[in-house]
Specification:
globular, about 350 residues
Length: about 350
């Protein structure tokens, strides 16, 4: 266990501790992690250097959905009422302080105002931004200028678009360049009706057919198609699970000490985000609360070896952060940075087409 440390930040009070294996794993894999922290309102980069962890925080109000397209060179961050696009600027990275330390850089470029749609997960399909529009119980895309969003699909049991969070549609899985599955807290068609049976009414839905393929989940999030399998987080149980969409059966890969939300893969490893439980009508009375006392539940990131089901390393947030939402892997980026709004660095970043110079 490493000692608690302070990150690079914007006057952050974040403190964390980690297993000695966690920074080593990131270095061995040659990657870093991008993480959104809903409650703390931050985009976080988790990096490793010489066996030590380093984190960078940038403020984005109620940061939730997160998507990265390395081919197109952009990162997309969903916030309370806007969706931000950050462009990759590798030519800028070596020039930032301290010179030569950073190997990648993301710079804010576009903010699209959606209104407070309770936007949850974000995915990129053929370069287009898709959002789980939780308030209106649908999937939507972004219109360039005229509209805040354009509804594209809703579950067949939701009879119309209305701002009532009828089923808490939240997670999106893609495969082969298409949206394949979504998660929701219930097959309900009235305002927040999913709360009545939240511990066992969660579902996985096939988007193409509209059929519900898995039932009985506990507040599921983060469906992912990976290496021929469909994974999801059975969040209220604190479990990473793999599902058989043909039979509807679910198998637990590992049970973890927190509310599981945020999932990414690299090689044989899964990175799972954990959050603490808010004792409200939404998060109260969940199985994880019965299994673990308040002092036993963790907020952090766990690396799981999918071949063995063992924990390969962990990062715990001990202060300043209680809830994570999404995780993305940044392969080949060992020490990236994000240019923030608080300092003057952004003032001097002038990027134009090469022909302009």
């Amino acid at each position: 266990m490493a000692a608690s440390v302070q990150p690079e930040s914007e006057q952050s009070i974040l403190q964390y501790s980690h297993s000695t294996s966690f920074p080593t794993l990131l270095e061995d894999l040659g990657l870093s992690l991008a993480v959104t922290t809903y409650q703390a309102g931050k985009l976080m980069l988790v990096r490793a250097e010489a066996g030590r962890l380093s984190t960078l925080l940038r403020t984005f109000e109620q940061a939730m959905g997160l998507a990265v397209d390395q081919e197109l060179g952009r990162m997309v961050v969903g916030t309370r009422r806007m969706v931000w696009t950050l462009a990759s600027a590798p030519e800028i990275a070596p020039q930032l302080d301290p010179p030569g330390r950073h190997d990648a850089c993301f710079v804010p470029r576009v903010a699209h105002v959606t209104g407070d749609i309770l936007g949850h997960e974000i995915v990129l399909v053929d370069g287009k931004i898709w959002i789980a529009n939780t308030l209106l119980s649908c999937l939507c895309t972004l219109d360039d200028e005229r509209y805040g969003f354009v509804p594209r699909w809703r579950p067949p049991f939701v009879d119309r678009l209305v701002a009532e969070d009828r089923c808490h549609l939240n997670g999106i899985a893609t495969a082969d360049g298409k949206i394949r599955f979504v998660t929701a807290f219930g097959m309900t068609n009235e305002a927040r009706a999913w709360k009545a049976d939240k511990a066992q009414s969660g579902v996985l839905i096939d988007v193409a057919s509209g059929e519900t393929v898995v039932r009985g989940l506990c507040m599921p999030h983060s469906p992912r198609c990976y290496r021929g399998h469909v994974f999801l987080l059975n969040s209220g149980q604190g479990q990473l699970s793999v599902v058989d969409v043909a039979t509807g059966k679910i198998e637990t890969v590992v049970t973890l000490p927190g509310y599981a939300r945020g999932l990414a893969f690299h090689g044989k490893f899964a990175f799972v985000g954990l959050s603490l439980i808010r004792e409200t009508d939404t998060f109260g009375n969940l199985p994880i609360s019965d299994r673990l006392g308040a002092s036993e539940r963790k907020c952090g990131i766990y690396a799981i070896d999918l071949e063995s089901g063992n924990i390969a390393g962990f990062l715990h947030f001990d202060a300043g952060c209680a809830e994570l939402f999404d995780i993305q892997v940044l392969p080949g980026m060992r020490f990236p940075t994000v240019v923030g709004f608080q300092g003057q660095t952004l003032d001097g970043i002038l990027i134009a087409p090469p022909s302009a110079w």
